[in-house]
């Protein structure tokens, strides 16, 4: 990458790392599919998110992850948090002033179209098929859902994550 226009400024490859990031952490510790994680990495980097949380750093080296991340794994910051440490990490994030937001299909969840993301947020994504465990949901400050109109009850986790990330960035685009 030579120079690239980012927002309203031109940035060199060397200066890119110094640009500010949105204060959104995407917690994908529960997500297992390398292709979904690669797509989430690509989305997280495209919107300059603070961090993408993965259960295992080795997944970054898998072909399925690399194919979908399209080299964004070189630029996107990661946090590694095994599933058994997830509650501890989330509690630490709350104590640091972050709001825990579960992306969850539940009647109690607030529709994404009616939700205002706090600036410092952790977006928690669930495991493919089983979602977010109840012990994690109990820790969350809010639950949001993406309104849907078809027969299928949920979206692919990478797609749902990208929609929620876009909504966050739309609400906070003037802060970077």
Detailed description of the structure:
This protein is an alpha/beta fold. Helices cover 31% and strands 22% of the residues. It is built from 6 helices and 9 strands; from the N terminus they run E-E-H-E-H-E-H-E-H-E-E-E-H-E-H. The chain has helices at 13-16, 34-46, 63-69, 86-95, 134-137, 157-172; strands at residues 3-6, 9-12, 22-27, 49-54, 78-80, 99-103, 110-111, 121-124, 142-145. The protein has a 7-stranded parallel sheet with strand order 5-4-3-8-6-9-7. A two-stranded antiparallel sheet has the order 1-2. Helix 2 runs parallel beside helix 3 and helix 2 (34-46) runs parallel beside helix 6 (157-172). The relative contact order is 0.19. The mean pLDDT is 91.
List the helices and strands and how they pair.
Blueprint: E1 3-6, E2 9-12, H1 13-16, E3 22-27, H2 34-46, E4 49-54, H3 63-69, E5 78-80, H4 86-95, E6 99-103, E7 110-111, E8 121-124, H5 134-137, E9 142-145, H6 157-172
Parallel strand pairs: 3-4, 3-8, 4-5, 6-8, 6-9, 7-9
Antiparallel strand pairs: 1-2
Helix pairs in contact: 2-3, 2-6
